[in-house]
Amino acid sequence: MSTEDVNAQLSEKFPGRSEQIDQLLSLLGEPTDASPGCIFVYGPSASGKTTVLQSLFSHYQAGETRMAYVSSVECFTARLLFERTLNAWAGHVPSKENAYSNYRKCDSLVDFVARVSELLGDEEQAETHYLVVDQAERLRGTSVLTSLVRLSELLGLRANVCVVLVSTVVWDKFRVRHGGATDPTLVFFPRYTKAQTLDILAHDCPTGEPPGFFLTFVDALYEVFHRNSTSVQELRHLVAMLYPKFVQPVFEGQATRSEFSRLFKLCQPYFSAASERLYLREISTSEWQRVAPASAKNRAEDVAQAIYELADGSGSGIMDLPYYTKFLLVAGYLASYNPSRLDMQYFARGRDPSAKGRKRKRQAEDSLGGQKRQQLLGPRAFAIERLLAIFYSIVAEAVDSSVDVQVQIASLVTLRLFTRTSSGDRLDGVKCRCNVGLETIRAISRSVQFEVDRFLYDFA
Amino acid sequence: MVDTYKPMDVFDSMTECTFILKPPSQQSQKQMQQPQKKSRAKGAAGRRSSLAVGREDSADRDISANGGFVPLLQGKEPIESMELRRQLFADMWTPLERLLSDTEKKVNNEGVTEVCNFVAASYTRVETAEKGQLASPFAEIATAVVFSGVNTGDHSNLFQSLQDQLYKNDHYVVLLESQYCTSLPNMLKSMLDQVAAGLGVGASGGSKGRAGGGSGTGFKGIPYDMSLLQVWWDEASPRKDSRIVVILQDFEGFGPLVVDDFIRIATNYCKDVPIVVVFGLATSYECVHQSLTKASISMLNVERFNLQRSKQCIDTVIRSVFVESASMLSFGAEAYKSLLDQFLLYSFSITGFVKKLKFAIMDFFYAQPLSVLSAMISRLDQGGSDTAFSIGECPIRLCQEQIELIRMQRSVQRFFDKKVETDGDDGRKYAVKALVDDDFLQDSVLPEMLRHLASYRQSYSLGISMVQAIQDTMPESQRKPLRTLHYYGISQLFDEGSHWKTLSAAIRRMKVPEMVLLLKSLDSIVSAAGSLDLLYVESSGTDIVSLLQQARELVADPDQTLKDEGYGEGKTFPDAPSKRIRTRTDMDNRPFLLFDNSSTDQELRALDIICGYIESILRACLSPYQNVPLYEVFYYRHSFLLDTTFSAQPRAAVQTALGKSQYYVDCDCCNGSSAPGDSDQDDEADERIMPSMNDTSIAYRLHQECRRMINLYDWYSAFASVVEQESAFMPKAPSQSEIQARFVRASEEMRFLGFIKSTQRKTDHVVRLTWGH
After folding, report:
1. Burial of B4 by CB count in 10 Å (0-12 exposed, 13-18 middle, 19+ buried)?
2. Around Cβ B135, how many Cβ atoms within 10 Å?
3. What's this protein's family per the entry (chain A) (predicted)?
């Protein structure tokens, strides 16, 4: 297939990416051409980098053995990366016959270079072999990266190799501090524009649906959601979730396709719920599909209610903790957000009412303008002794200082409701930080009839 | 301390729940023979000689020969009786243990099945024929989020049963624990190892031979790589509906980045290999959002399952163990509270609950000489719904001491007193004979008393069931769980507490049709209980069956029955509502009558009488267990023992060790001249600071006399003056520099233990951090 054909085909498949495809194709050239040593493809996530590259390579060359695709998340050591590459180039697949071993054992760069020249060096007319490294930002700061950038240099004339790095991070962040690194050829994938996005989504139009109607819906959805996320994938996800709800009234015969605003009105509760819950995946795909479909039969409030219940329900609300553990958690929150100098004022028994009055007043002043409120700064680390002192003073009844309390602190740390800030080998003077939000703490204190707000300093 | 009898033995733990089996050295054998004096001393003696355990194996075996059981009653208990106790313990605990584990399994099972169904249904979503449906652009991994509750100790059981169930359904299960998955390579390694074992790749593959029988799966020298998973899966070609289920048992413990990467990798493969991920969450769903990035969360298709059922499980256990009394041993209010508090206030842990229960049962058979009596009671029909007990012969003759012990129980004395009261002269003769004639006591009095006990148990469980039936008519918020009802029931406060008021208000608010329903359900409870021995309830003058019968008649035809019974127009009941609200008092007492227009006066009166009946039935059934003969034996009440054993108090232990070190050390030198066993003099001796004591202990006692600031020099001089007296029993008095060094060490230890802290406020002073003596 000629370069022009490939270009035309891919450009149709990937709207808005023709410029990049063109650029890449011109860099790659004919199979036997000498290619640039390293190409760096970058751009925001969901801008089609990986997909374009993969289909480009599959169209562009006949044999699969010339392209190795590795993800650097998966290949977390240099050895994995090298051996996978060799496997791909050699067309080797681990199986029972070869005892699941890789093509060659390859631990270091030296080995890798030697193996590659062994593998590719004897070919008469060296075709370019490609190594595509996805999520290349993981390689930043490693020696693997520097060597990959100069791989073709290292191999010299023995083999014709091109490394393609794919990343969401710009090249400037990759550049090593001390010289000696060459810059690769950069290919930038910009964010899709609105028109391009709509073009892409037009491909998603379900069979049997009028494309015009579908696109109008997508257009409307784009206008609503593009402020939150411009990711095409996210938008496609939302369309996939919301469109069935949107057209449901049409199938039920309660509205026609021309009554666009009426359909939107019926779908309104779903839209408002989706903007937060669905996008944040507080409701998953399968849970969402169980929500009642939009129709004139359902009242909007009922639907909204059902959606909120879905997100908060099924045990995800307040966690059920043992009674004293709840108090421990509340005490931890108070210790994290109250200044320790005020502990006497808040927790000492038999405080005088005048002091209380004064405190109230100041709180009122501070709550408006306190720029350095702990609430804004995040939780502060506290010593376990302070936590225990607060705990014993907020628990209504007298509690024995038995080992059970200590065990509960330990289990709160394992549950990551407290995070330990002192190092693990320090046994005395352990410091923790409360890792729970105000809303949860409020709910917990409500369940044990404890007014946490009375004890919080400088909270708005 | 509540307990009056104490086993004098090596299994006496002070605070640490640590037992030391000591060889029967000369000393301890001698002590065994001696009349019971201070059990504490005995425990300490055991500790002291513990070092010898390793060496004297033969002696050690001697101690544990009877599973740790020793003859009680100062060694006068016959060997058969001891053997019987041992046997009884085994007989009781074995079925109970099975019951407990079965209960836990049964309770978990429901949730486990839900998860299994989810796993089976994952990846099978056929393209629905529904119009307008689009596929999600993300390759989502089916994920089950399982809320398992904060009782992390029980989780291994839960996940084990989940794993077993999934295995049964031909899935391949990988159970990962955070402690083995600190990094991504570790996690993949343990995952791939388990998958290989499950798919049988490692065992059958030729690799093992080549690798020379290497460890684990035999893939020596091969990096753990997810691409292997795909290869294995294709080669093994398992059944179509099989899945690889990866369970992250304690999600909170996993490093967020590790799980994040894992999910990103798994998404690359989930098209070819059906991977289902199960997160075990102890806290809330928020945690997933906190630890995972947006990118990987959008790869998950989450379903949530709630498996935190420890409360439900405990309720079932309490019902079968305590209320319906699978065994004769029950818990007194104090001990029950201690058992339940540990659960509700601290841990929600079933394992902990079971441990405590087992310890109490062990203690009962181990240290209660009268526990042999439980051999006389057995279930008529094990396993059936029949709750009747049968009283049999005691397999051994009780010894003199046991008989005396029975006679000494206050409840037994009260039982005799009551006999005298009710039966007059016959009763007197009976009582006298029981007090003098041992055989008579064992052969006829004991069975009678036990029959009382058994009958009480039956009516108690009947009463609790009735209360639950009444509760079922009340709104959810007013209901109490069984564990609380049982606590009310045994704490003598049932008809005084607030819940009683709620209950009686609920039945008094009922109208005729509701009352008919309630009576029907009460009836079915009574008839479901099977052959009832209502001796106990009848002895208090309440006849449940006939009262219920009367109530049924009343509600069926109020006018007629009331007339027949003589509550006609002429006769007025003092507190019956003979009229509707006509006075202010009526309004205050029965405001609900204002809204009640449907019932006639007669009906109201009938309802009122029925309520009285029900209340008296409940009162009779749920009367305190302290009225039952021999309750001291069968209601376990050593809550102190449970508390000290399971809720150790480290700070108190340190303070005791330093302030009352003779408690632990039990040496002669520090006890001074006071005779052991004489507690008055002991206290005085505690105050005296002896030079033979440990240096830290001396420093601790001296610092107790100081105020907030401690002058180091004064402290040192006081310390030196005590230590110098060592010359009384040491060959050489310590030198000045030695004393100094020892003082520095002692004060440093005090600082380490958190009693003092250095301060900048005053030179040569330290701050005291604890108060009081």
Report:
1. exposed
2. 12
3. Belongs to the ORC5 family.
Q: Is B344 on the interface with A (CB under 8 A)?
A: yes
Write phi, then psi, for B735 (nearest 5 degrees).
-75, 165
Task: Tell me the CA end-to-end span of chain A in Å, nearest whole number.
Answer: 67
- The mean-pLDDT minimum among B315-319, B484-488, B559-563 falls in B559-563
Measure the CA–CA gap between A145 and A427, rounded to whole angstroms. Answer: 41
Please report, for chain A, the start and end positions of each structural domain, with discontinuous segments joined by +. Answer: 3-188, 194-312, 323-455
Burial B540-577 (b: 16+ CB within 10 A, else e): eebebeebbebbbebbeebeebbeeeebeeeeeeeebb
Q: Does B301 touch chain A (CB under 8 A)?
A: yes
Q: Does A204 sit within 8 Å of B302, measured CB to CB?
A: no
What is the nearest CA distance from A206 to chain B, expressed in angstroms?
6
B659 in reach of chain A (CB within 8 A): no
CB B358 within 8 A of CB B93: yes
- Give the separation between CA B540 and CA B622, rounded to whole angstroms: 12
* Tokens 């007194």 belong to residue: B332
Please give the backbone phi and psi of residue A383, each rounded to the nearest 5 degrees, phi first.
Answer: -80, 150
Give the integer Cα–Cα distance in Å for A90 and A97: 16
CA nearest B526: which of B548, B503, B494? B548
B137-308: CATH homologous superfamily? P-loop containing nucleotide triphosphate hydrolases (3.40.50.300)
Show me where the domains of chain B are located: 1-68, 137-308, 665-768
With both helix axes pointing from N to C terminus, report the angle between B498-508 and B446-472 in degrees, rounded to the nearest 10.
Answer: 60
Categorize the per-residue pLDDT at B168 as very low, low, confident or very high, splitting at 50, 70 and 90: confident
Distance, CA of A409 to CA of A386 (rounded, Å): 13
Query: What is the rounded CA–CA span in Å between residue B698 and residue B711?
Result: 16
Selected for mutation to probe chain B from A85, A228, A308, A320 (highest B CB count within 10 Å) is A320
Taking the C-alpha atoms of residue B145 and residue B276, their distance in angstroms, rounded to an integer, is: 11
Q: Which two three-digit tokens encode residue A126?
A: 């060296």
Distance CA B80, CA A321 (A): 48
pTM of the model: 0.79
pLDDT 10s digits, A90-106 = 888 877 777 777 788 88
Using an 8 Å Cβ cutoff, are B195 and B230 in contact?
Answer: no
The DSSP element (H or E) to which A433 belongs, if any, is: strand A431-434
Q: Do B647 and A99 touch (CB under 8 A)?
A: no
At residue A61, the pLDDT reads 64
Q: Given this model, what pLDDT does residue B600 score?
A: 67
Residue of A nearest to B281 (CA): A415
In contact, A70 and A79? CB cutoff 8 Å: no
B663-671: average pLDDT: 69
* Architecture category of domain B665-768 in CATH: Orthogonal Bundle (1.10)
What per-residue confidence (pLDDT) applies to B740?
93
Select the highest-mean-pLDDT range: A249-263, B379-393, B490-504, B757-771.
B757-771
Q: Model confidence over A116-160: pLDDT tens digits?
A: 888 877 666 667 888 899 988 888 878 888 888 888 888 877 778
Rounded distance, CA B251 to CA B262, Å? 13
- Which element (helix H / strand E) includes B353? helix B350-367
User: How many Å lie between the alpha carbon of B140 and the closest alpha carbon of chain A?
Assistant: 9
Q: Please provide the DSSP assignment of B199-216 as one string.
A: HTHHHHSTHHHHTTS-ST
* 3-state secondary structure (DSSP) of residue B765: strand
What SS3 state is found at B392? coil
Nearest to B504 by CA among B613, B600, B577, B596: B613
User: CB–CB of A222/A198 below 8 Å?
Assistant: yes
* Among B722, B740, B724, CA closest to B732: B724
